[in-house]
């Protein structure tokens, strides 16, 4: 156990988040996502909802503020302007963590392609459809004395 670290952030996920560099992406995906088939690095978070896992990740992961968007969700097939409840929850969590950019919608195949190129994919137990999110890691700025 570590003080101040959300218990959902186990050793494998913490190692992935720590190893990521500025501009690397991580995909947090739902239980239906073909994570094992496309992940370069796969971290399993079975039984954990994507919203809860995102909240934990946001306690330690800085988001990129050098790009117009550091967060991407999967667009609803056939209704790209629809924003499902899970995507609204993602946006609220991101805003609560200080993220001021948009959560851009990516068409399903574009999301799959981008997730396949991500540093890692975290497969959650999320059962809400479209519970998929890509995040771009930012930098931790040194505190100036």
Explain what this protein looks like in three dimensions.
There is one protein chain. This protein is α/β, with parallel strands linked by helices. The protein has one domain (23-136): RbsD-like fold, CATH 3.40.1650.10. It has helices spanning 11-19, 35-38, 50-57, 85-96, 108-116, and strands at residues 25-29, 42-45, 71-74, 103-106, 120-124, 133-136. Helix 4 links the parallel strand 3 (71-74) and strand 4.
Task: Count the DSSP helices.
Answer: 5
Number of structurally distinct domains:
1
Task: Give the beta-strand count.
Answer: 6
CATH class: Alpha Beta
Please provide the ordered H/E string of secondary-structure elements: HEHEHEHEHEE
Report strand %: 15-25%
The average pLDDT score comes to 96
The largest sheet, given as strand count, sense and whether it forms a barrel, is:
6 strands, mixed
CATH topology: RbsD-like fold
Structural class, judged by helices and strands? alpha/beta
Helix content: 25-40%
Q: Stretches where pLDDT falls below 50 for ≥5 residues?
A: none
Rg over alpha carbons: 14 Å
Strand order of the largest sheet: 2-5-1-6-3-4
The appropriate CATH architecture is: 3-Layer(aba) Sandwich
What overall geometry do the principal axes of the alpha carbons give?
A: globular
Our measurement of the CA-to-CA distance between the termini, rounded to an integer number of angstroms, reads: 31 Å
* The CATH superfamily title: RbsD-like domain
Descriptive labels:
6-stranded mixed beta sheet, 6 strands, about 140 residues, alpha/beta, 5 helices, RbsD-like fold
């Amino acid at each position: 156990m570590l003080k101040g670290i959300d218990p959902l952030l186990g050793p494998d996920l913490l190692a992935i988040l720590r190893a990521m560099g500025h501009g690397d992406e991580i995909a947090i995906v739902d239980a239906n996502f073909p994570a094992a088939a496309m992940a370069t690095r796969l971290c399993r978070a079975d039984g954990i909802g994507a919203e809860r896992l995102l909240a934990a990740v946001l306690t330690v992961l800085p988001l990129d503020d050098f790009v117009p968007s550091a967060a991407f969700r999967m667009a609803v097939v056939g209704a790209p302007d629809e924003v499902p409840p899970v995507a609204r929850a993602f946006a609220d969590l991101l805003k609560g963590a200080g993220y001021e950019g948009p959560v851009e919608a990516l068409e399903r195949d574009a999301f799959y392609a981008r997730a396949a190129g991500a540093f890692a994919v975290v497969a959650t137990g999320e059962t809400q459809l479209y519970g998929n999110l890509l995040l771009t890691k930012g930098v931790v700025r040194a505190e100036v004395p």
